[in-house]
Each structure stands twice: as structure tokens, then as C-alpha cells.
Amino acid sequence: GIQVEQSPPDLILQEGANSTLRCNFSDSVNNLQWFHQNPWGQLINLFYIPSGTKQNGRLSATTVATERYSLLYISSSQTTDSGVYFCAAQITTSGTYKYIFGTGTRLKVLA
Amino acid sequence: DAGVIQSPRHEVTEMGQEVTLRCKPISGHDYLFWYRQTMMRGLELLIYFNNNVPIDDSGMPEDRFSAKMPNASFSTLKIQPSEPRDSAVYFCASSITGLQPQHFGDGTRLSIL
Questions:
Q1: Of residues B3, B5, B27, the one with CA closest to residue B96
Q2: Mean pLDDT, rounded, of chain B
Q3: Which residues of B touch A86 (CB under 8 A)?
Q4: Residue from B31, B34, B56 to probe the interface with A (highest A Cβ count within 10 Å)
Q5: I want to staple B93 with a disulfide (CB 3.0 to 4.6 A). Which of A28, B9, B24, B33 is the partner?
């Protein structure tokens, strides 16, 4: 089945720094979604980005479907950005949808 | 608008007991998903429904797990009998269609003693 890999697994930043998180997927996908799981365990939608580039404030994401990867950029990081970032790939198999989550990037932003 | 609502937020029970987790999807969303999150296996899709009909339950771990969606605004995930290895956070999510973003509830943290 499709593999979804995220890197780096862990990241520690000083407040104000920028970072890039990567999501690689081993096969063609219908869609790609980025989530932030905050320290309280809530999963927050960040981007729904099957291809192209989107921006939302200090965050932006780019998916290059033909090369099977997606990037999440965090600029001017803040302590509230801490948590785990997941990408999730959606594929269609035998007429049903499959949703495969990566193992996440754990981010800690230090004040 | 209210998001996906799950209850209870926390559940602690003894091995062998029946556990029922509940989910109310966002109104107008035709798809509902149940996920389980553990340290060892990460986030796994257990089952999903389209218009109240189960479409793919291949992620349900074993017969002790069952899920129902009696109407468009309510779903349950039941574990009977529960075992300590079922301890996890269970999430419910919904989406307008199968190709639209999923919106997650806050999860139910389940501990089986």
C-alpha cells in the first residue's frame, strides 16, 4: 500500500525561526491534507492541498503531486506552533477512499 | 457553526466492560470517519460511512469493534468486550464529500484497566 513519510521526525526551534516540514508519498494521491495536533490533542485543519501552493498567515504549503511530495512552511515561529504536524494522503482503491496519515513531525518552539 | 462533537471526552473502564463512543458530525456532511490514535500505530482509519452506510470497515481491528450510524447526525463506535490494548484516543471526523477536507472532533481518550 501507499507509504506516507514525514521528515524530520522532531524539530526544535527558537521563537522567530522559520522551518520546512516535508511529506513524501509513494504513490499518486487524490488529495493531501495537513493537520496540527496541539498539546491538548486537538487535530486542526491547516491545508487541503492536492496540488499547488496555499498560504494562510505565517503558514504556507506546497504540493508537487507529480513528484509525490508536499511541504509545509512555518515562518516566524511562535510557541503556540508547538505540537505535532501530520500530513494525510487520500487515495481511491477499488472504489473506496483510503486515508493514510504520516507519522508526524513533532515541533517544539522555545521562547 | 458547531464542529464535530464527540462524547465522552474521557472514559476509564475495566477490562471486559462494554464501551460506547458517540459522534455528531457537522450538519450537511455526508461522510463520517472513525480513527484511532496510539503511540505505536499512529492515526489509523477504522471505518467510514457515506450517507449513513458503512463503506469500508477494513480498519476495524476485530469483531469486538462495531460501528453504527442510525441517522445523519449520530454515530457510535462500540467495543465489547473491551481489553487494555484498546486504550487509545478515538477520533471522529466528517466531510461534505469524500474529496473534501475532513474536520475532526476533539477525540475520546479511552483507558481500559
A1: B27
A2: 95
A3: 43
A4: B56
A5: B33
